[in-house]
Design goal:
Endonuclease, Chain A
């Protein structure tokens, strides 16, 4: 059956422009497209992209690129204006979230298994609000992000943590370098509450927490933080990041070796009981 002009598509996804800068970008694109009465196919032809690509950007499933943004500005006549897509793109790129991370978060929200490895700081999903705020404020003081971006960073983290409290929560495996629990963030009070939160996390029925001790030396399989997600269809997504760049990978040829390395790291790590004991000792200042 042919859809009438102006009729709402049956599979239309509602957008929340306040969810993130990338969501605002997608909502802006859809709003301008629909104000001109164009379908996604119409816009795709004008921008020389596929309609699938247009849909993915509008719904936040695919991050916009500089080339895409400039093409959109040309089509809508926005180049050099305050509403330019290129300006929104640069705000996203320079914001609190690294490239690839917004897309990673969409996968994380429906993963059945989450595997995390972190160095130096407590993994985000396990951070207390106070610990997370200290890190964000520190980035502001260094001039790395604006106060608004710091608020966004903390808000995104809170939403990610809330998404884990669903009726059928994922299994969450966490291995963290010993440096994570030894590096004091925010002073004794903040750190004590954070370490207590780790112990509570380890008590949950769907979690496994392991500390990677310093003394495993060269047997540590990762030098950078790594996130691995198992999705409902059993496919695996890997997200890894450096200080300035994030990379999302879905290709089995490169993701499966990362999963193998994660399992090898778990084998070298302390058991959960021994990890909790170490955390308690650090917390009490006896180790």
């Amino acid at each position: 059956m042919e859809r009438k002009v102006g009729e709402r598509p049956l599979n239309r996804k509602e957008l929340n422009p306040d969810a993130s800068p990338q969501a605002a970008y997608g909502a802006h694109l859809r709003s301008l497209r629909e104000s001109r009465g164009w379908t996604q196919d119409d816009l795709a032809a004008r921008m020389e992209y596929s309609s699938v690509h247009i849909s993915a950007v509008e719904t936040g499933r695919k991050p916009p690129t500089l080339r895409f943004s400039r093409s959109a500005d040309e089509v809508f006549g926005l180049a050099g204006t305050a509403d330019a897509f290129e300006r929104q793109y640069r705000e996203i790129k320079q914001g609190a979230l690294l490239e690839g991370f917004p897309e990673y978060v969409t996968y994380e929200g429906r993963a059945v298994e989450i595997r995390l490895y972190e160095i130096g700081i407590i993994p985000g999903l396990l951070q207390t609000p106070e610990y997370a705020r200290v890190l964000a404020n520190s980035a502001v003081r260094r001039g790395a992000i604006t106060p608004e971006r710091a608020d966004q960073r903390v808000a995104v983290l809170a939403k990610r943590q809330a998404a884990l409290a669903r009726p059928h929560p994922p299994m969450v495996f966490v291995t963290m370098d010993e440096s994570c629990i030894r590096r004091t963030v925010g002073g004794p009070v903040v750190m004590d509450a954070q370490l207590a939160g780790l112990v509570e996390f380890a008590e949950l029925p769907n979690t496994l927490l392991q500390v990677v001790p310093y003394d495993i030396g060269e047997r540590r399989t990762f030098d950078l933080p790594v996130n691995l997600l198992t999705l409902p269809d059993r496919s695996i997504v890997c997200y890894a990041e450096s200080q300035a760049q994030g990379n999302l990978d879905r290709e089995p040829v490169s993701v499966v070796p990362m999963l193998t390395a994660y399992h090898q790291l778990q084998a070298e790590s302390l058991s959960q009981a021994a990890s909790v004991a170490m955390i308690e000792q650090v917390r009490k200042g006896t180790l």
